[in-house]
Amino acid sequence: MRIIILTTLAMIAFASNSVLARMALKHTDIDAASFTAIRLISGAIVLLLVVRISNRPSSGSGSWWSAAALFAYAAGFSFAYVSLPTATGALLLFGAVQVTMIVYGFWAGERLLKLQLAGLALAFGGLLLLFLPGLSTTPPVASSLLMLGAGICWGVYSLRGRSAGNPVHTSAGNFTRAVAFAVVLSFFMLSRLSLDVAGIWYAIISGALTSGLGYVVWYMVLPMLKATNAAVIQLSVPVIAAVGGVVFLGEFITLRLVLASAAILGGIALVIVRKPSAQVTRQNIGKHFNAK
């Protein structure tokens, strides 16, 4: 029961990031750069407090390369949600993360079975369905590319974190470093600076609770789950985000989105449910992405 509760809380936290970002960037006047900076600062503060309270020996302090990937994800995520619906954004983000990790596993030595190749084809078919031209529900291309880029960056960040020591300590170091990038971005975006009290609170909640504490909860439960189970469980995040978009933002779930989601998430599920040579892949990933 403890594992179920913690896992559910972590998935709700991850999905809430999409809902909070969309609420802030659609219904308040805060600009995307400020939302990104406040989110990263809040996350860094919470993670540093957790590290201090835990009083455990440090085994990883992050790296500038990982921080750059984290910042690129957070910035792309924020700017994409200026115009993307919650469910579509979460689907593109999650799909890009999983495909990035699957492709890297293949490059690092893992070989896919025919069923897994069919799953990849199904997932890409769902992506094409989502962007079929001529329909009013087609998501904005520029924002969609930003979200796909954010997902790739988050996939890279996750791969680098596999061999970077204690995940909470490492995350605290990466968030702290990423703040520097966010400050630079805010400086270049001063002409578009726009702050809003509600938007600031959404960013703080996103950074401190659904990002900072959400990662801590996920790292607590992750050792208790099989790798495949953990990957499949994350398929629930876009679904939860879609429900949040309907409840809190009054968004509509279209038939095209339902079909595309089924194809993308179903295809990814076919790939990650059975991964041959998992041990070899983990060793290769650790070798190639060791965070110094």
Care to describe what's here?
With 292 residues, the protein is mostly helical. The protein has one domain. It contains twelve helices and no strands. It has helices at 2-27, 32-54, 64-80, 86-107, 114-130, 141-161, 167-188, 197-221, 227-233, 236-249, 255-273, 278-288. α1 (2-27) crosses α10 and α5 packs antiparallel against α11 (255-273). The radius of gyration is 18 Å and the shape is globular. The chain starts with a helix and ends with a helix. It is a multi-pass membrane protein. Residues 2-131, 145-272 form the EamA domain. It is found in: Membrane. It holds the Pfam family EamA. Residues 1-21 form the signal peptide.
List keywords for this structure.
about 0% strand, 12 helices, single chain, mainly alpha, about 290 residues, globular
Task: Draw up the topology in text.
Layout: H1 2-27, H2 32-54, H3 64-80, H4 86-107, H5 114-130, H6 141-161, H7 167-188, H8 197-221, H9 227-233, H10 236-249, H11 255-273, H12 278-288
Please indicate the count of domains: 1
Q: Please tell me how large the radius of gyration is.
A: 18 Å
Q: Could you tell me the strand content as a percent range?
A: under 5%
Outline the low-pLDDT stretches. 276-292
Question: What is the CA–CA distance across the termini?
Answer: 37 Å
What percent of residues adopt helix (DSSP H or I)?
A: over 70%
What's the total helix number?
12
Main β-sheet description: none
Secondary-structure class:
mainly alpha
What spatial form do the alpha-carbon principal axes imply? globular
Tell me the number of strands. 0
What is the H/E order?
HHHHHHHHHHHH
Averaged pLDDT = 87
